[in-house]
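Sample entry as discussed:
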Amino acid sequence: MADVLIVGRPNVGKSTLFNRLVKRRKSIVHDMPGVTRDIVEGVCVWSGKSFTVADTGGVLESKDHISESIKGQVQRVLGSAKAIVFLVDGREGLTAGDQFLTSMLYPHKSKVFLAVNKIDQESLQNRVYEFYSLGFERVFPISAHHGRGVDELLDRLVESLPEGEAKVLDGVRIAFLGRPNVGKSSLVNAILKEERVIVSPIPGTTRDAIEVPFSFKGQQFILVDTAGMRRKSKVEYGVEFFSVGRSIKAVEMSDISCVVVDLSEGVTDQDKKIASLVERRFKGCVIVGNKLDLIKADAKQVEAYLRKEFSFVDYAPVVLTSAIKGEGVYEILKACLLVWKDYNIQHKTSFVNRAVERVLKEKHPPSHKGREVKVYYAFQEGSKPPTVVVFTNDPSLWRKDYLRFFERRLRSHLRIEHAPIKLILKGREEEKG
């Protein structure tokens, strides 16, 4: 768990402070209470020391499902944190919600740094004094938005932390994508065997892209749970708009994307659009058919159905799961290992050229407007994804249908079974440039 936890009621500025500490806009900031629901982690570097910091969901005394889940999450991680920043709203003043949180934090009093936020100017300094009644010794007036007082808070924080560098999250990044309520968070929790991300029957519970480190068969992974992606016409500007943007960025930052489908509803156009988004970015892909327990069908038939519906990503392994029963979840990681191996393949130029020759012998590019397509040579430019450059007389002569055939057969001859390849056509004049 993170070295430093930021805790507080909803809308006191926890995400603003978190973003300032990690120096990037990682948590969604919005003036709607309760935007952050899961724990979001990042790395802060200060005075030559790096440490992990976590933004937590706003804690309320309310008994509704999500409030209870957030409260349970925060309580579980308090003991493992090395320091706790208890953030309160100086402008609003001391509230019953702050006092409720104080009762939660008091057993960990020695680790608590009370930060009174929204003290943007000297004239507001008097707002701080009433918070001394909470009984915490270290009290800091700050403005997370403007940065006022944050340096002093950081100086004291790093003094309390043990020596040693915090580990930056590292590993194969796996993003879990899908429509709202298909079971992305449940799958992440089933893999981790703990309620690390909040699961609710309410669509849209996950709003940030949540990153969780995990190790499997000697390989380090970072599991990224993302917000549900609805059709554009269904997405209102605001929190959900930014959530979907985060999901798209999570795809771009990931190595492999697991497209999660609700088998009880079948494959929808939106599922295909999400998979297409992954394909266009040349990312590794795994199709996950979740909620297998809710349908009565033969597993082989279900797999054949998914392969047919997602034929445009025919390299993607298909995994069937029931997150609620914990079935098939580790098959996802096994499939990701297969994809990762192929995603990193690097071939010698001679091998690539032989593979290209074999494809051309199977089927040569058709002529276009009386002009014949000529292929001179090819080489692999890089991996992640495997990228093949083919020099030809005129790239515009290659028809789209033939390009699809060429890519598919080239993958086969290059023995890249579970990952996409990126094909770049270059004219002869580009070779000289």
